[in-house]
Specification:
Elements lengths: L1 E8 L6 E6 L5 E6 L5 H11 L3 E4 L6 H13 L3 E4 L11 H4 L16 H18 L4 E2 L4 E2 L5 H17 L2 H4 L2 E7 L1 H4 L2 H12 L5 E7 L9
Parallel strand pairs: 1-9, 3-4, 4-5, 6-8, 7-8, 8-9
Antiparallel strand pairs: 1-2, 2-3
Helix pairs in contact: 4-5
Length: 219
Amino acid sequence: MDLVLNVGMDVRRRRVAWAFRKGERLMELALQFGWGMMTHSRILLDEWNGGTVILSPRDLNDDQLTRLSHDVTGLGGRSIVDPQFYLPHSDHQRLCSHAYWPREFEPEHRLLPAEWETLLNNLDGLNDELGTAEFLLPGILAGSADYLDVWLDQHETMLGEAQRLGLLDKWSCWATVAVGADVATQADSCQRIVEWLERWSVDGVYLVIERPGALCTWP
């Protein structure tokens, strides 16, 4: 199983992600896309003769996502799209403009199986269109240990739908685990998440840790 660590959920441009592969002495640097990085990504992949770019729908419109993903492939690289579904009630204009994004969620809304099904089908089509290397499953931010039961229930439902739809067989699927500083620093909370992950046959984990002091909350 691969573990990809997104270093810092923040709005700064300085974004990187590391991939650790069990049993190998290897650390792969992936470019976590930020605002204004299209040209930078192309230049670096050309110089490196390949690499991985994690695409950001928050920073790219539909046309830019398609063009950059195909450019990455043409340069011998791999692209992955992060759905950035951390806050389902987000009102970020560009992020919410994408076709896969659901509409009009209230802050405390819990997604029903049918809503997860629609989101996953839309993301399946997007990943097909972009030719991504892996499928990053959508993940909600666990901003507080008090809401971890809600978080686990929501992600259990989501993974159940992904399995029912055949996505776990079709793709190399990575579970997105997005946690706030409060959750990340509590051993009991982390253990519960690890035990939950062990029950599912995902191929990797995309770990996103909110920096201390950030204002994101769920629910």
